[in-house]
Write a structure and sequence with these properties.
The chain is mostly helical. It is 68% helix and 1% strand. It has a two-stranded antiparallel ribbon.
Length: 499
């Protein structure tokens, strides 16, 4: 009797090696981890409308006893005329704590096992997210309680980004890192969307659950992290990725890739000092100053400050802008604003693919930033002319604004954290990622604050356009080196003097 052929599904399984299965598993796992981080950050923007709302339009609870009280259905202390300032205090408490804590988070992440570090971070994030919601059941009306919880949550949330980027960087080499991380980085938008949907389920009935449920989800993912995350491929007998070719002591610049452009004949030791090529070094955590000496870290960090300023200004103010210029109700404006995130997903993937193909991360970011500036100007004028222009421009602007932001925080951070001057020591990944994202988070805190201080929407858009141009200018020297490399000029940088 003839034997049946191997089923197609089994052949598909056999086509992937053990290494590939574990790499895919790690990618999915870290995607879910950071999705839960963003999922737990989103409820505050949904619940604001419940903490202070139009009481005259409330239901039958507003009987005779509430006839002369315009704020009877609000939640104190957000029932006062200064409620906008209080909401701003909550937002900035989180963002400033996050920006400051990020610089220290990477240092801790380099020196602690990532599995434990992420587990504790997610459990603490879940606790502080839930504590905000418990204010509803404990009948707490003190602004200090909610502010302190936001500060603590901002600090706890800094554990996420450096750790997950470091873990992905440990598993994936430089080959198609831009494309892989472009897809992987969609966890930010997925988390925002899920957080909005989950918080929206409970916001009108018991807003405390809008925080408690996401807090429970991220805490549960912390337990999953403890049970399943593998930090290094070699820990389970898998082949570690190649971050650079160790045989190339004096690389020839062929395509202008970032590692080729930024390679220096001097190496950074684990404590930040300069050692000669080939000197034996034990893999150990790099210092903060040592991470800053890696070529490109300062430029990309400052570029991200302005790029993230633009992105987070849209995040906090876009629904209000759409509502005011398109005369839509808040729910419709909020739903349409998610198209900016959709564009961001497409832009992140596109930026990764292009940067992999041309071998130039800085050039890719610069071109997208240059294109974003005039598109923001156009959007400010044609975005008032109906729903179709709004939808089209939101997707287009989202791609151009968030594409460079996504590329810098993922592929660029991983490239710099595994730079060849580190001689294969990947322990700088967390510190480099924290420096880059921490600097960017300063812009994330400044953008919404400045937008609130400006008098009109035209001024806000001029600020965003200027920020994009500054972000582009900060990469000009790196772009120049990449272009020279693409043209075949044998540019070599001696030491770090040019940076």
């Amino acid at each position: 009797m003839a034997r049946a052929t191997i089923p197609p599904g089994i052949r598909c399984i056999q086509a992937f090696s053990r290494d590939n299965w574990y790499r895919g598993f790690t990618l999915v796992l870290t995607f879910l981890f950071y999705t839960s981080y963003h999922l737990s950050r989103k409820p505050i923007s949904i619940v604001k409308s419940e903490l202070h709302k139009n009481c005259s339009g409330a239901d039958g609870r507003g009987s005779m006893s509430h006839r002369d009280n315009d704020t009877w259905c609000d939640w104190a202390p957000f029932d006062k005329p200064n409620y906008r300032m209080l909401f701003g205090a909550l937002d900035n408490s989180f963002l400033i704590a996050y920006a400051i804590g990020m610089f220290f988070s990477g240092i801790f992440g380099e020196r602690l096992p990532l599995r434990y570090y992420l587990t504790v971070g997610m459990l603490l994030s879940g606790l502080f997210t839930a504590l905000f919601g418990f204010g509803f059941y404990w009948n707490i009306h003190s602004i200090w309680y909610y502010t302190i919880v936001q500060i603590a949550n901002g600090l706890a949330q800094t554990t996420g980004w450096p750790a997950v980027v470091a873990c992905v960087g440990n598993w994936f080499g430089k080959g198609k890192r831009g494309f892989i991380m472009g897809i992987w980085n969609s966890h930010t938008s997925v988390g925002n969307i899920l957080g909005s949907l989950i918080a929206g389920i409970f916001v009108s009935s018991a807003w405390g659950l809008s925080f408690i449920v996401p807090g429970a989800i991220i805490a549960a993912m912390g337990i999953v992290c403890f049970l399943f995350l593998v930090e290094y491929p070699e820990d389970i007998g898998c082949t570690p990725p190649t971050h650079y070719d160790p045989k190339e002591q004096e690389p020839v610049l062929r395509r202008g890739s970032m590692e080729e452009i930024f390679t220096s004949p001097s190496d950074v030791s684990e404590n930040g000092s300069i050692v000669s090529p080939g000197a034996p070094t034990e893999p150990s955590a790099i210092s903060f100053i040592g991470a800053l000496k890696i070529p490109g870290v300062i430029e990309f960090s400052l570029c991200l400050l302005f790029a993230k300023l633009v992105s987070y200004t849209f995040l906090f103010w876009l629904p209000l802008y759409i509502s005011s210029v398109a005369h839509l109700n808040p729910k419709a404006a909020g739903d349409i604003s998610t198209l900016f995130d959709v564009g961001g997903i497409l832009g992140g993937i596109l930026a990764g693919i292009i940067s992999d193909y041309v071998g130039g991360r800085a050039t890719t970011c610069c071109v997208m930033l240059i294109a974003a500036a005039p598109m923001l100007f156009v959007y400010n004028y044609i975005g008032k002319n109906g729903l179709a222009p709004i939808i089209g421009m939101l997707i287009f602007c989202g791609a151009l604004v968030n594409g460079p932001y996504a590329l810098i925080t993922t592929a660029v951070a991983a490239d710099l954290g595994t730079h060849r001057c580190l001689k294969g020591n990947a322990k700088a990944l967390s510190t480099v990622t924290a420096i880059i994202d921490g600097t960017g988070s300063i812009g994330a805190a400044l953008g919404p604050l400045l937008a609130g201080l400006l008098s009109d929407w035209n001024s806000v858009f001029y600020m965003l356009i200027a920020s994009d141009i500054l972000a582009c200018l900060l990469l000009s020297r790196l772009v120049y080196k990449e272009i020279r490399g693409c043209c075949g000029y044998p540019t070599r940088l001696r030491g770090f003097k040019e940076f």
